[in-house]
Amino acid sequence: MQESWTHDFITTNGIRLHYVTQGSGPLMLFLHGFPEFWYSWRHQIPEFAKNYKVVAIDLRGYNDSDKPADSTAYSMPEFIKDVQGVIAGLGYEKCVLVGHDWGGAIAWSFAYAHPEMVDRLIILNIPHPAKFAEGLRTPQQLLRSWYIFFFQLPFLPELLIQLNDYQALKQAFKGMAVNKNAFTNADIETYKNAFAKPGVLTAAVNYYRNVLQLGSPLQRSWSVLEVPTLMIWGEDDIPLGKELTYGTEQYVRDFQIKYIPNCSHWVQQEQPQLVNQFMHEFLTR
I want to staple 27 with a disulfide (CB 3.0 to 4.6 A). Which of 92, 177, 193, 214 is the partner? Predict the structure, then answer.
């Protein structure tokens, strides 16, 4: 499967980002979440490379992409400029944008900032920013999101994540997954190795250290998005309640949602065939 994948780098917004690519045609850009890297799209890359030039990037700070030392480098305006530069740098004017978790948060904000550059938007297990901000005003979602507040602390989150050979990563993936077989031991080792690269751990946590700042996506108001949008949601997401999806249609003119029961936060890895099917149906409608 990986023999026809190509690894490459692109310089955008003053940093160098690593990406994996396969296929040719219109651009389909994949943005991963925490604590992942391009590898979280391993089940989607070959499938959509049949019809698209698929590009799965390592977000800034992750795996083989540059890792700016300043914590302020991990803010939404910088992420938006990264994505804009990747699309233009690859020679495209627009793309199908696919994002999960933090990558989904970036995809939401990018689609609002540059709707002319997003042909279709596909969001996996991350709510619309307005719905997430609303959810954080409820006790149940505050409890689910305890880690966001924990990550505001200096040093301690990094120390605890590293304990026992990054046991926290194994717990994040296999512990939360409904189907534990979705992650092999080799998959877990691959994630550990990527996360253990110098600078990655602090960079990844820095995403959260800026999320509560004034001017962040959780602090602004949102209009109605005109980009056709599909949301795919694993219903057994521990950190993000299903109720965060309710009412999203208020914020998106052309909106579809597909729920997947008995599936965790790691939806595209746990139920790849179903995720791929829903994506195909949305893209060919």
Answer: 92
Q: Give me Rg for the CA atoms of the chain.
A: 17
Write out the H or E segment, with its range, that includes residue 233: strand 229-234
H helix or E strand, kind and range, residue 273: helix 272-283
Torsion-angle region of 91 (φ positive above 0: left; ψ -120 to 50: alpha; else: beta):
left
Give catalytic residue positions: 101, 208, 265
Residue range 38-53, pLDDT digits in tens: 999 999 999 999 999 9
pTM: 0.97
DSSP-derived secondary structure letter, 262: S
**3-class DSSP assignment, residue 146:** helix
Pairing of strands 6-12, 15-22: antiparallel
Any idea what the CATH number is for the domain that residue 191 is in? 3.40.50.1820
- Domain span at residue 268 reads 2-283
